[in-house]
Amino acid sequence: MYSRQEVSQLKQEFWTIFGQYMLPIPSAEGEKINWVNYKTGKKDIYFKMHTDNRFVHIAIEIAHKDLEIQQLYFEHLQQLSSMFNNSLNEEWEWKLHLTDETGRVVSRVYKELKGVSVINKKDWPALISFFKPRIIALDEFWSSAKYGFEAL
Fold first, then answer.
1. How many domains does the chain have?
2. Sign of the C-alpha dihedral computed for residues 108, 142, 42 and 72 taken in this order
3. Alpha-carbon distances, residue 129 vs 122, 123, 125, 132, 134 (angstroms)
4. What is the pTM (predicted TM-score) of this model?
5. Do 77 and 60 touch, CB atoms closer than 8 A?
6. Domain range enclosing 54
7. Is the pLDDT of residue 70 over 90?
């Protein structure tokens, strides 16, 4: 059994390694990018990569406090679902108004990988193989999709 501090250290080590691995890869627009702490440029819309000891997921998360505006953003994202699916080449889960780990109501489009653990270093290649193509594809999608959110 790992202590909280040990789990925290392992997570930090994983994200440091992942960040170093992704460092030479430019964004879809050819710019240097912080893949681990991806900035969408749109307040209340985030790209999240989550790890724990049972599963991992990558997501577009909409966290606007006004649930009607959050729903408006989510519905706009749904209108872009064919472009999204073309960029990602796989089906993702679409959830309007769910409660996150901190108790906030968010909306999320996500892909999950179960049966892996960030605290098991043997799983790290699988985690990297899961996150890398998806965060790159999300960036490719967002490089076109973000302009539709400027009017909202």
1. 1
2. negative
3. 13, 10, 6, 6, 9
4. 0.93
5. yes
6. 4-149
7. yes
Sign of the four-CA dihedral 123, 26, 35, 134:
negative
Among residues 74, 76, 69, which one has the least CA distance to residue 59?
74
To which H or E segment does residue 105 belong?
strand 105-114
The residue written with tokens 């043997």 in the block is 122
pLDDT over 90 percentage in the chain = 90
Tell me the per-residue pLDDT of 83-98, one tens digit each, with 9 for 90 and over: 999 999 999 999 999 9
The runs of H, that is alpha helices, within 23-123 are 67-79, 81-88
- What amino acid occupies position 45? I
Q: Which residues pair with 94 in a beta bridge?
A: 109
